[in-house]
What does this fold into?
Amino acid sequence: MSDRERITPAWCRQAKTRSERLAWLTAYDYPTARLLDEGGVPVLLVGDSLGMVVLGFPDTTQVTMEHMSHHVAAVAQAQPRALVVADLPYRSYETPEQAVANARRLIEAGADAVKLEGGQLRVPQVEAIRAEGIEVVGHLGMLPQSVKEEGGYRIKGKTENESAQLRVDASALEAAGVFAIVLELVVPETARAISQSLRIPTIGIGSGGRTCDGDVLVIHDLVGAFPWFTPKFVEPRGDVAAVIREAVEGYRRDGA
Ligand code: KIV
It folds into this structure.
């Protein structure tokens, strides 16, 4: 593949056969998308985590299609080589028809693929979106959009039943046509077992080191741009908050 050829879902699937690790990151705006693309990140996820790290909401359940379309358009404006994946937000895919209509809106805003949360129960939605020729990423394990029903963020796959259900869900999503599955806060043994059983890549977040075919992180967590909360499993590789604070302090001190 030449340097400027766009990354595709097929490229992501082939990366697994080449044993090439996939390092995905979230992006919500033009400059971040450009910087990450220039850094060679193959997939930019416009995650509904933007509800917390960009919009200041307590969780993802207040994120709307309007928010998502706005941020997808900003990321697409960077014309990245990377594949742009957009989250279908809370309650935007209750039926297959609604899922298709909203997936189309995100594609029209500039996304290359959409992501939705859930397993077997979401197969009709995945199949309907795939029937429109739109690529889909699945999301299993801890599902942030279910935080209210679940009463918090819990590690998944701790019991044999939970682990077995996750494996069933992962196979069902693969059969329905997703090209990758995010595994969030899944116990490492289960994440590894799922990864080994699928032909499509798994992308881990908080599911142990190297148990999946790749990883995804919220960019703010990676670079220390949201200092009020950092998930336990993240080791920040920068301190953007300190850079901003220092620059502002110097600007004020010097009376510029
Ligand atoms: O919304 C998001 O950023 C996500 C990742 C954390 C996987 O879904």
Q: What stands out?
A: The CA atoms of residues 154 and 176 lie 26 Å apart. The chain has eleven helices and eight strands.
